[in-house]
Amino acid sequence: MLHVLYLVHDVSDPAVRRRITMLRAGGAKVTLAGFRRTTSPVADIEGLRPIDLGATRDGRFGQRLAAVAKAAFGIGAKLAAMPRPDLIIARNLEMLALARRAKAALGARVPLVYECLDIHRLVLRDDLVGKALRGAERYLARDVKLLVTSSPAFIANYFKPFGQVAAPVELVENKYFDTASVAVDERLKAQNPAAPPW
After folding, report:
1. What CATH number does residue 15 fall under?
2. Is position 198 within any domain?
């Protein structure tokens, strides 16, 4: 069974729940680690006890950068009790920085997947801040094995023109994921084995 370490910027984001459900439906075991927007740690997300990396605040970019820097120093200890993952998925740019640190702390050749489901306005700026952030993203994504994004427009208008990520791209649109249909499909396969090509 594939073991995925999923690093997220907000463990209580509903999209995180959907991704965990999707990964599990695909047969993966998931370890969740990330920041929270709540005052106290989140106890349960889809039956998982997240590894808490601390609190961050929406719209406070400087505070989030400081939280990421602080978490980078302690991420090895936070992940020490966890079995080595087969894959690390980093949701958003700041988590990609932590994913690289986690990979180094685990001492493993674990492939990295960069999941970017929104493009922050700061990276689109044409000034020094925008250029610095795009440069940081290119550097952090230099050897990721896959880019997961939610819109063809992000690929056409950001990733390709700016040359941000050289990895293959998987488009996973932000739609409702129905686990019941996955279970039905599996039952149908078992009841009706594949016949000649249809």
Report:
1. 3.40.50.2000
2. no
- Whether 147 maps to a domain, the answer reads yes
DSSP for 164-184 reads ---S-EEE-------HHHHHH
Cβ neighbours around 151 below 10 Å, total? 17
In a domain, 176, yes or no: yes
Q: Which residue has the tokens 């370490």?
A: 5
3-state helix/strand/coil string of 82-110: CCCCCEEEEECHHHHHHHHHHHHHHCCCC
pTM: 0.84
- What does the pLDDT read at residue 174? 66
26 burial level (CB within 10 Å; 0-12, 13-18, 19+): exposed
Total number of domains constituting the chain: 1
Is 152 a residue whose pLDDT tops 80? yes
Contact 21, 179 (CB under 8 A): yes
Residue range 160-175, pLDDT digits in tens: 999 899 999 999 876 6
| Structural domain containing residue 158 | 3-191
Give the pLDDT score at 187.
Answer: 46
